[in-house]
Amino acid sequence: MKIALRVIFLTVALAFALSACDKPANTAPTPKVYRVGMNAAFAPFGSVDTAGKIVGFDVDIMQAVADQAGLKIVWVNTPWEGIFSTLANADIDIIASGVTITDERKQSMLFSDPYFEAKQVILVSPGKNIASPDDLKQAHRVGVTAGTSADTIMQKMLGKTSNALVRFESLPLLLKEVDNGGVDAAVGDNGAVANHLKFNKDKGFKLIESDKFEKEYYGIAVRPADTALMAKINSALKTLHANGSYDKIYASYFAK
After folding, report:
1. Do the Cβ atoms of 96 and 62 come closer than 8 Å?
2. Which of 10, 21, 128, 252 sits in a 20 to 30 Å window from 36, CA-based?
3. Would you give the distance in Å from CA 49 to the centre of its chain?
4. What is the pLDDT of residues 80-107, one digit of tens each?
5. Closest Cα partner for 100 from 118, 81, 82, 122?
6. Mean pLDDT, all residues of the chain
7. What is the 3 state secondary structure string of the chain?
8. 110 neighbors 124 (Cβ within 8 angstroms)
9. In Å, how far are 54, 111, 241 from 77, measured between CA atoms?
10. With contact defined as beta carbons under 8 Å apart, do 121 and 187 qualify?
11. How far, in Å, CA of 131 to CA of 122, rounded?
């Protein structure tokens, strides 16, 4: 009996040893997948196509950056109003969503080098007597997307508690209100507003640009501690500019 038990024990031990030998000595670690937050309601920078896929200029730029830097990314469609807290809470790792670089935002986020130059413009509903930013002070209703640069600018111009200032949670809702004549004018980023105008040329809208609106710059954002990640992003952006990849992507969305 003792011999039989010893044989069984040796057989089990040998099987265990052989199975251990079958395992690779050095298993490569699973690469990190970075979650990129995108408010996909801001065409042409980000939107959802008919197949449910997030597409747009920011998507193509961030994917090119990721490919260049060797980063694996997935997109997370995130409401604009909560996108910064979502980053802070580590529910996402990166924001690539038409985020204007500001001194206030720099206090809680680390920004990449600028990748897009933007400016606020005014989209005027048909028949409204608005020709400059000063005319907005006499408008009955001026629409902006809540929490954006336009919101901040119009608060300074009209007052934080002005009844004329109407906030919408997304750009599509704001532009729909312009279409319906629910607001006299909308203020928003030039790229997105011009994109809307391009597909609605027959509706009699008027686009107003003004030197009173300063230039703004979009940046890719990460948490302040993620300096190594940001170094990879900035290095990739520089390469995309140097090899012409950025210009090709830009021209596909903003060709004149």
Report:
1. yes
2. 252
3. 16
4. 989 999 999 999 999 999 999 999 999 9
5. 118
6. 89
7. CHHHHHHHHHHHHHHHHHHHHHCCCCCCCCCCEEEEEECCCECCCEEECCCCCEECHHHHHHHHHHHHHCCEEEEEECCHHHHHHHHHCCCCCEECCCCECCHHHHCCCEECCCCEEEEEEEEECCCCCCCCHHHHHHCCCEEEECCCHHHHHHHHHHCCCCCCEEEECCHHHHHHHHHCCCCCEEEEEHHHHHHHHHCCHHHCCEEECCCCCCEEEECCEECCCCHHHHHHHHHHHHHHHHCCHHHHHHHHHHCC
8. no
9. 8, 20, 27
10. yes
11. 9
Q: Tell me the C-alpha to C-alpha distance, in Å, between residue 233 and each of 64, 75, 188.
A: 10, 16, 27
Tell me how far apart the alpha carbons of residues 96 and 165 are, in angstroms, rounded to a whole number: 27
pTM score over 0.85: no
